[in-house]
Amino acid sequence: MMDNPALLAAAGAVLRANDLGAYTRPSPRLYPHQWNWDSAFVALALAYSDPGRMEREVDTLLRAQWTNGMLPHIHYNPGITGYFPGPEWWPDVPVRRAGERTSGISQPPVLPTAVYRAGCALPEAGVRRAWWARLYDPLCEMLLFFRRYRTIAGCPLLVMVHPWESGLDNSPRWDFATRSGVRPRLPYARHDTGVVSPAERPRTPDYDLYMYLVELIAGHRYDLAGFFPETPFAVYDALFNAIWYRAALDLDRIAADLGRPPALPADALAAFREAYHERLWDERSALFLDFDLCAGRPIHVETIAGLGAIFGGLVDSGRAGRMYAAYRDRCRACRALPSVPPDQSAYEPGRYWRGPVWVNTNWFVVRGLEEAGLTADARALADETLDLIRAHGFCEYFHASSGVGLGGQEFSWTAALAIDLLMRPVAASPGGARTERR
Ligand code: 2M8
User: Fold this and answer.
1) pLDDT tens digits for 125-137?
2) Is residue 327 lining ligand 1, measured as CB closer than 6 Å?
3) Which of 164, 201, 406, 412 to mutate to test the pocket of ligand 1 (most atoms within 8 A of CB)?
4) Is 169 a catalytic site residue?
5) pLDDT grade, residue 432 (50/70/90)?
6) Does ligand 1 come within 6 angstroms of the Cβ of 291?
7) Strand (E) positions, 245-374?
8) What pTM was computed for the model?
9) Is 396 a residue of the active site?
């Protein structure tokens, strides 16, 4: 098996192979354009080896930002075809930057956290500060977009309007919407199942829902107030909201360093935190659950998204330890942390976001446990995650029980987050005791 220097070199080679100059594609054949949170993870890794390329990666992504602050989930490369859905599915609106081809929905806002962490990895304070100063306003706008355009009825939690926005596209949490049986008006043809086995990808009813929602949302010019009464899908996603909160905290760290006022007032963050706990906490599962706004009730499907609050800094270390121990215990027959515990009826160990192990969700938990002072657990999970990659390569995801690599090959965020875990090993801390296994 590869030692750490060899693993680091191999990860660097994946990012070089996916380098298209202005940005890094997530995977050679499956995902040729620029994706929002994928590029944030890549930027984090580039900080250690190539700060110039890191800046380029983020600049290209931010060129896609709409004038209302939204950072789209896909920034299309006009020179590339062969991905479905292409830009023609997202009709133009005045808030889109002229000349840029983008989708009309967003993705979990990892970018502010990536910029904060990448900045900290830069050796020169002057360079770091100049970079942060240049990006600060667009990053604020990116977060404020959700507060301005994605809240309803006075609740500060953020409404997610498409499974693609969650980044965990066919998570069983969204099955309630797939079951509604909606279908788009226009016919469509998928490309993904020509690249990866259909057994590892979303099913047809999932894509029917995705394309129905694209038509609905675009038909209302991407305006939540317009499509909310008709949509079968409007949720408070526990992971998405936790990532947003983490981003707000990290943006405040940047603001403090730059001597600027906080991006979000402390009382707004406190109200958000309170709403998050009040609306989403589920004592029985020791997880935060998502909330279906159309039905007005929690979504009782338990997945790794419910651990997002650990990364978000939304729970203290006692609760973080309990949540993590309970989830691990349910998944003891699995490799590392699967995206869905095997006791959930929808669990499929080899299908995309319905069970396999993903490096980014493990990375969220590692860094969250570390920040909570649970460093022994964080280190153990980091090691298990790196060992999976060592054994099976830089795959998009890994079979939850055998560990076999699945999905796209040469996957950028798997490589990028391996680099981050190797270059910034989990810090030792006095509070690093291992949590009790229940
Ligand atoms: C996957 O999503 C895209 C649609 O956005 C797809 O399946 O075509 C998800 O895993 C998403 O989280 C990720 O950002 C994207 C590119 O890696 O692929």
Assistant:
1) 999 999 999 999 9
2) no
3) 164
4) yes
5) very low
6) no
7) 281-282, 287-288, 290-292, 297-299
8) 0.97
9) yes
